[in-house]
Amino acid sequence: MTHPRPPQPRLRADARRNVEGIRQAALDVFRTSGLTTPLDEVAKAAGVSKGTIYHRFGSRRALIDAVVDDLVAERLRDIIEAVEALDDPLARFEDYLLRMWLLQYDEPAANDVLTRVLPDSVQLTTLCDKANRFGRRLLEEAQAAGAIRPDLTPADLTYLILERGAALRACAGQSRADYARRLDFLLHGLRSWPRPA
Amino acid sequence: MTHPRPPQPRLRADARRNVEGIRQAALDVFRTSGLTTPLDEVAKAAGVSKGTIYHRFGSRRALIDAVVDDLVAERLRDIIEAVEALDDPLARFEDYLLRMWLLQYDEPAANDVLTRVLPDSVQLTTLCDKANRFGRRLLEEAQAAGAIRPDLTPADLTYLILERGAALRACAGQSRADYARRLDFLLHGLRSWPRPA
DNA sequence: AGATTACTTGACTCCATAGTCAAGAAATGT
DNA sequence: ACATTTCTTGACTATGGAGTCAAGTAATCT
């Protein structure tokens, strides 16, 4: 509850160093272990005490907000960009889902964001909404083209992502290849009915 | 670490009453809230102190073992029986999966058992293995009949159950109807390729 | 260099849950 | 009805993580 950083015109040198160090440490630690990692580990990685994190950032949530963009936003942008480059509505929709699901596998932190395993924050909500809206558009288009089952709803799409996150957290050990193979089953189930691969 | 009950020839009257009361309370509490509910709640429901539970049963795991059969075994037997009554291999396989998935929705405790969210115990392991073996048999038969994708492995089948458990725990609010509708997507994805409903 | 102010620290509180145990309560045997 | 034995209790310890704060340390200003 000290200074969440807006009023101070300039931090002292050591404080500036620490803010940066903590950000980097948080990036590292969260990237590899997800957003639920205890702050003590971030502190240790930054060579700083837990108290310092709280003084510099104010709360766990604020620290997450400070790194979530670097952690996830770019990945989402990449996905959107890659998908936009495709033409076929079915390919666009399936590629989108597949890339999201693989992102969830590859980056525990991204998974935590997409599945909201954490105190809500404006940043996070904005990110999720953005991805959601994009996905819904793709869904509509694929359905309009008759490629995806018409009874698949936008809410179902959200669930497909949420569930994957929970599934991943629960079944940790699976290889990426197995994981991807299983995703294929899921995609098949969403296609409009008789249609060659 | 007192007496896990085998040596004593006969408990005192109040102890016998309590054992039964605790079992009933555990059944109730676990049934509605899953096997991860704190033992204090079972104690409260039984009108007994937590210490008594430990004295009578020895550990959390032992208490679970003492009720898991009543909690789950019969449901599994029902499923197996209902499925055995069917003829078509595809119908058998899909009915089995669907019933398992709905059991997971209907009974949090059964879900906890099937997904092993708890200290391993012989009882539990036995139950899971039994269901697993049955499912694998159905899978083989459905694949032999050409009704289910040949690249679906027994391990995949296990994952389908495990994942559903995690998904359920994570996405609590969904209605049974929505849940069932989504299961249909999953089933579709497992079918051998061009085949009418 | 000394005074001032900003910053850091780690020991502390708080919460929730598993599991334990000495002391008191209650059933049983005679 | 009392001695004996069994049982119950609730306060206690332990664990692990979030968040706080008084006291000590170090940058900065003059």
Automatic annotation (TrEMBL), chains A, B:
Name of the protein in question: TetR family transcriptional regulator
DNA-binding region: 38-57
Ranges where the HTH tetR-type domain occurs: 16-75
Keyword Transcription regulation in record: yes
Keywords associated with the record: DNA-binding, Transcription, Transcription regulation
Gene3D superfamilies for this protein: Tetracycline Repressor, domain 2
Family annotation (PROSITE patterns): HTH_TETR_2
